[in-house]
Specification:
Layout: H1 3-14, H2 23-31, E1 36-39, H3 48-56, E2 60-64, H4 68-80, E3 88-91, H5 97-108, E4 114-117, H6 119-122, H7 125-132, E5 136-141, H8 161-168, E6 173-177, H9 182-191, E7 198-201, E8 209-215, H10 219-228, E9 234-238, H11 242-254, E10 259-262, H12 268-279, E11 285-288, E12 301-306, H13 313-320, E13 330-336, H14 338-347, H15 353-371, H16 376-383, H17 398-401, E14 406-408, H18 410-422, H19 429-436, H20 442-446, H21 463-475, E15 479-482, E16 488-491, H22 493-500, E17 506-508, H23 534-551, H24 555-558, H25 561-570, H26 575-578, H27 586-606, H28 624-635, H29 640-647, H30 651-663, H31 671-677, H32 680-692, H33 698-704, H34 711-726
Parallel strand pairs: 1-6, 1-7, 2-4, 2-5, 3-4, 5-6, 8-13, 9-11, 9-12, 10-11, 12-13
Antiparallel strand pairs: 14-17, 15-16
């Protein structure tokens, strides 16, 4: 078919004047009968690459697709550009017997050009027998990364596709995916026996997207404050668990945000309704598990938030790729803490060893991406085998917008490469970090490497630092992770040259998310975000000290520091507003609040502060009922274990609740419980300690008593002290 005819066909069937990117070459290759492999980012126009040739060729094209919702969308879209509904059908478990008969009749009569099938339907004997007897133009595999165990959405049934295709008909194959690392690409081609395929790989750079990782602290509050700056705009929030999806969607609604949940636990009709409401803009925000999004063709999603860090960089890339598909603004915010990665690692236990190794390596990549201070765009593109000049990022990631300091790293990089070579390229990142910093781990001892001449060559720096050197050396192409051996580090040709002739190398100081002390807010590409008012904070600290001296009580009894910090964001100017502050209830506001709100009111007026009253975040449930129930149970002198059992909570969680009740200004008497576990003289000793301490920090108290008392005992005595002194 001539090129001119292809453009005419595009105009006739779809109404477009020109092709996007390399669509035309891809379609021509399919029409010429060649095997085709398309790697094209979300929004690049993958579906056109098989839809147009299917309409032009004789017979029916069979499209394997993983999701029922996706098939329905695609079929509806094709029917919309044709006058005949029989031009496209899907075949999956949602169809009745009579519907399946109609689909088969349309195919037999040559009316159907595109048949979408789920891989499970394709493996059924009766479907294989039916398809063997009809004319197939070609097979298309959408979301082809599902074939690879190294892909982010591996589906075992995809591994059988090639043998089924060969049983049905030996026709060309087109495989398409929006995410494929070099390893996944090779895996797909090998499995489908199409190493001869012509590969069309587009750039993975989405230059309109802004990428940011924020520490996971007060995350719901941050999300609500952020969404309120995006009024009327569409967004998706991804969570790993269905429970969190439900809770967060409910919390957003309580706070006036038009949001709905979406996850596989909802019935099909509800999921379809929620999806349609999002597409039709009856709802602004969808809170979802990864069950949502494949094939969702909404071009104006303005933000994608990850409440939990995904299991792989590919998942992250694909999910963030749903933002800004029209080329407009798209902000991608993810919340990260190292504990979440450790939790995901635990889920790998009990799986086959190879699967555990793959899972750990994928988690290691997403942790590296989250913790790095290197341009995020550069990190993503490097992962997909693409080189990128980070000077082109134009501040569209947090690391380029707020760059960390750099230091000369030639000596460090050279030492790393010496060690990789000296240990004969046999170890992974974690091992090299321990070896370089001189840590004698069980693994180092097992290899007897603590006697190696290079052991501890970088002991003046810790493992966190060496991890950063490894990441930045990898992104700069001096070393690479050998995927076949689950991430063993090896030297590249460039790395070998650096070893022989070291050159200047700028290292960027990395972040440390294992310890998050600072208050954190989302600061997006538009520069919005809250920063603590240091001047007011100091005034409040001074006022607290003065009242503390006047009343002869420790400062923390009056208001704790998180409460003071919250005052510096919300600027409460009366006692009612003060009760919205974290850790401040009616009792505490009435007892100590007046001088604080007076100071804040004067400060706001003197400095013309515009108060962000919209940062008041309502709680999901009315806790007053639970609070009353808890106090009643304590008044009845029930053991904390029994109170916990009746509410499905641990003793720790019960103590948490009692603490929050006491800190907000309500007196609670748990002496009956404390008297059972602590002698009177012990109680007196701990009570006296808190009376004179500058801080109520439990770790400091634990150290002060040389570990004589458990954390639970100290917490209980702190509750007794705060209840009697503060309330």
């Amino acid at each position: 078919m001539e090129v001119m005819n292809l453009k005419d066909a595009l105009k006739t069937h779809f109404g477009f004047d020109s092709f996007k990117g390399r669509q035309e070459d891809i379609i021509q290759n399919v029409l010429d009968g060649g095997n085709t492999f398309v790697i094209m980012p979300t929004g690049g126009g993958k579906s056109m690459c098989y839809q147009l040739p299917a309409l032009l060729l004789e017979g029916t094209a069979v499209v394997v697709s993983p999701l029922i919702a996706l098939m329905k969308n695609q079929v509806d879209a094709i029917r919309n550009v044709s006058n005949d509904n029989s031009i496209a059908h899907f075949m999956n478990s949602s169809l009745s017997k009579s519907e399946i008969v109609r689909v088969k009749n349309d195919i037999t009569e040559g009316k159907t050009k595109l048949l979408y099938v789920a891989p499970e339907s394709l493996t059924k004997k009766e479907n294989i027998e039916f398809l063997t007897g009809v004319k197939i133009s070609f097979f298309a595999i959408d979301e082809a990364h599902c074939i690879s165990e190294w892909g982010h959405d591996f589906r075992p049934e995809y591994r059988r596709l090639r043998e089924i295709f060969e049983e049905i008909s030996r026709v060309p194959i087109i495989a398409l995916t929006a995410t494929a690392t070099p390893k996944v690409q090779n895996d797909i081609q090998k499995n489908l026996n199409m190493l001869d395929a012509k590969v069309f790989k587009s750039s993975f750079n989405r230059d309109n997207l802004y990428y940011q990782i924020s520490p996971k602290k007060e995350v719901e509050k941050q999300i609500i404050k952020y969404i309120r700056t995006k009024e009327g705009k569409s967004g998706i929030i991804y969570c790993l668990s269905r429970k969190k999806v439900e809770e967060l969607a409910e919390l957003l609604k309580v706070n006036g945000i038009n949001a709905l949940p979406y996850h596989a636990g909802l019935d099909g009709a509800t999921r379809a309704r929620h999806q349609d409401m999002f597409l039709m803009e009856d709802v602004d925000v969808i809170v979802a598990t990864i069950a949502f999004g494949m094939g969702i063709d909404k071009p104006d999603v303005r933000f994608v938030i990850h409440h939990d860090i995904p299991k792989s960089l590919e998942s992250y890339y694909q999910e963030t790729g749903r933002a800004g598909r029209d080329g407009g603004e798209g902000e991608c915010i993810a919340f990260y803490r190292y504990k979440d990665v450790e939790k995901l690692e635990k889920f790998l236990q009990g799986k086959p060893v190879a699967e555990q190794e793959i899972g750990r390596q994928l988690l290691n990549e997403i942790a590296s991406y989250s913790e790095t201070s290197v341009c995020r765009r550069k990190m993503i593109l490097h992962y997909f085998g693409e080189q990128y000049d980070d000077s082109n990022c134009n501040d569209l990631c947090d690391n380029c917008k707020h760059p960390k300091e750099k230091l000369e790293g030639q000596e460090y990089v050279h030492n790393l490469l010496r060690v990789v070579e000296g240990l004969k390229e046999t170890q992974r990142s974690k091992y090299y970090c321990a070896f370089l910093s001189g840590l004698i781990t069980s693994e180092v001892k097992a290899y007897k490497h603590d006697n190696h001449e290079l052991f501890g060559i970088g002991k003046e720096k810790d493992e966190h630092f060496w991890n950063a050197v490894i990441r930045q050396s990898t992104v700069s192409g001096l070393i690479f992770k050998d995927i076949e051996t689950y991430g063993v580090l090896k030297l590249t040709e460039e790395g070998k040259k650096f070893l022989e002739k070291p050159r200047p190398f700028k290292l960027i100081k990395e972040r440390d998310y294992k310890v998050i002390d600072e208050e954190s807010d989302i600061v997006t590409s538009s520069g919005k975000g809250a920063v603590i008012d240091e001047q007011l904070y100091q005034l409040l600290i001074d006022l607290r000290k003065q009242i503390s001296r006047d009343k002869g009580i420790p400062p923390f009894v009056i208001f704790q520091e998180p409460s003071l910090r919250d005052m510096c964001f919300q600027y409460p100017v009366n006692l009612e507003e003060l009760t919205n502050i974290q850790g401040v209830g009616n009792g505490k506001a009435a007892r100590y609040g007046a001088p604080f709100v007076k100071l804040i009111k004067n400060y706001v007026e003197d400095n013309n502060i515009e108060r962000p009253q919209d940062v008041v975040v309502k709680s999901l449930i009315n806790k007053s009922g639970l609070k009353v129930q808890m106090i009643q149970n304590i008044d009845r002198k029930l053991p904390l274990e029994d109170i916990g059992r009746s509410q499905g909570k641990s003793v720790d969680e019960v103590i948490d609740e009692i603490e929050s009740i006491v800190l907000s200004g309500t007196r609670v008497n748990i002496n009956y419980y404390i008297d059972d576990i602590l002698d009177e003289d012990v109680q007196e000793e701990i009570y006296d300690y808190f009376s004179e301490a500058d801080t109520d920090d439990l770790q400091i108290a634990h150290d002060e008593f040389d570990g004589d008392y458990s954390e639970e005992e100290l917490r209980l005595m702190r509750i007794k002290f705060m209840s009697e002194m503060a309330n």
